[in-house]
Each structure stands twice: as C-alpha cells, then as structure tokens.
Amino acid sequence: DLHSFPTRRSSDLEIKSSLCSALLCSPVVYGDVYQQIEEYSASDLEGLTVGIDFGYSHSRLKNEQYAQEFLPINGGLSYPEDTSVVVEQKRCSTDVSLNIGYSYLHENWYLGAAGEFSFGENAKKFVIIDEGLLTKSKIFGFSSAFKLKSGYYFKDLNAVIYGIAGLKWRNVEIQYNYDEESVSAVGSKAKLTTPLYTVGIGIERPIYNKLSVSAEYEYTWRNSKGTSKLRPNEVPVCFYIKQRMREHSFKIGIKYHI
C-alpha cells in the first residue's frame, strides 16, 4: 500500500492536467466549429431555390369611368356623355405563392432572380349611380411575377438584406350590371392586364441545412385602361375605364436550396 500511494497520486495529477488542458483549449475548438457553421450557412444561400410564401396585401383601386353617349335607363335614370364617375376601392387579401429562383454570393455581395406564381382571388361590388347600376371588380386567381434582387450578406446577422425590382402580372376584371324592376342587363367584362411595376426590400436567413426563411415588403403600381359594353333596353353603351392600382404586400416564406 505504501508503494502504491505515489502511483495513485501521479495518476490523479495526470487526470487533473488533462481536464485543465481540455478546458483551456475548448474556446478554440468551439470557435472553430462556430466559424465553420457561419461559413457553411452563408454559402448555403447560393444556388437554385424553390419555396413557398404566405402573403398579405392591401390594394387601392381608383376607377374613373365615363360613358360614350347619353344613356336613358328605365325611363328616368341617365348617364351623361363624357361625364366621369370616380370610385375608389380598398381591399385586403391573403394568398399563397410558389417561387423558384437562383442566388449568387461573391465576397458577401448578393445577387438573385426569382419567378413567382400566386393563387387566390377576391371580388367586390360597388354602386356607380344608384342601387341599380353596379360594377363588379375581381382580381384574378392566378398571377405571376419576375423579380431581381441585389444586396449584401451581413455576417453578424448571418442574413442577406436586399432590394427588389421587377414586374408583376395581376389581371383585374371589371363588369357593369344593371338590375332594377323590369330592366336588367349584364355588361361585357373588361380585362385590365397591364403589368405592375414592383419595388421592395427583403431579408433572408439560413436556419438549417439547405433551408432558409425570408421576409419581404413590396410596393406595386400601374395605370391601365379598358372598356365594358352594357345593353339595357337594347340600347348599347360603352363605358371607358381608367384604373390606377396601388398595392402594399407583406410576405414571409421558406426556401429549400437545391
């Protein structure tokens, strides 16, 4: 037993020395691992991507319509020639969109392009002259967009902040209807298909292997024209429409990097 005491003491010292070395070296090891994760996460934002976005939009449509000629309706109501009626309409909607794109990083500078396809529609009726003459405005259920993105990767945030510019194709359909007592008529549909201009800002951050989350704000606008024909009492009248559309959109999404 006396001979074994120095051996036990030396083994205890060796264990304590190993523990101290491990604790002293651990910040370096963890630092290396953290650096590897950061570098991997940044590069994970590059390449081909597919994703899904959930959006909320607030639209403002200002419709100015005027008739081509004097229109008597039901013996008393009339629409004077070239007299315009301005109706402003606001609407809120939610939709789901799918996107496919490509991203590139060079020395923390970020470039990207994406195509977007969204689904969902909404319709709204409002009065033009009285309770009989109505218009129905509907945003089509399918729309698409092409966007370019440019920004910078911030290492401290482990995220890319970028600007957005592009075009969006969102069709609006306007139809005039008249229904009062014995007189009723359904007008033709005017389809406003002028592309919308889009600008915005976004942020994207990797969260897991090949996965990232994003948040975007977009502002879109356009001015478009259309015509709709109505035939009450077999007397045709052509409504000319000038529409000014403005839209604010907020989106959150998730992307998979192929």
Main sheet strand line-up: 1-4-5-8-9-12-13-14
Task: Determine the fraction of residues in helical runs and give it as a percent range.
Answer: 10-25%
Helix segment tally: 1
| Sheet with most strands | 8 strands, antiparallel, barrel
- Structural class determined from secondary elements: alpha+beta
Radius of gyration: 31 Å
Low-pLDDT residue spans: 1-5, 26-40, 73-77
Tell me, what's the shape? elongated
Give average pLDDT, whole number: 78
What is the count of β-strands? 14
Distance between the termini: 66 Å
Order of helices and strands: HEEEEEEEEEEEEEE
Strand content: over 45%
Notes on the structure:
By secondary structure, this protein is α+β, with helices and mostly antiparallel strands. The protein has one helix spanning 5-43, and strands at 47-67, 71-73, 77-79, 84-106, 109-119, 122-127, 133-139, 142-154, 159-169, 172-180, 183-192, 196-208, 211-230, 237-257. The strands form three sheets. The protein has an eight-stranded antiparallel beta barrel. The chain has a four-stranded antiparallel sheet with strand order 6-7-10-11, with no helix packed on it. The longest helix is centred in the N-terminal third of the chain and has 39 residues, at 5-43. It starts with a helix and ends with a strand.
Please tag this protein with its features:
258 residues; 14 strands; eight-stranded antiparallel beta barrel; alpha+beta; 15% helix; elongated; four-stranded antiparallel beta sheet; disordered N terminus
Give the secondary structure arrangement, pairings included.
Blueprint: H1 5-43, E1 47-67, E2 71-73, E3 77-79, E4 84-106, E5 109-119, E6 122-127, E7 133-139, E8 142-154, E9 159-169, E10 172-180, E11 183-192, E12 196-208, E13 211-230, E14 237-257
Antiparallel strand pairs: 1-4, 1-14, 2-3, 4-5, 5-8, 6-7, 7-10, 8-9, 9-12, 10-11, 12-13, 13-14
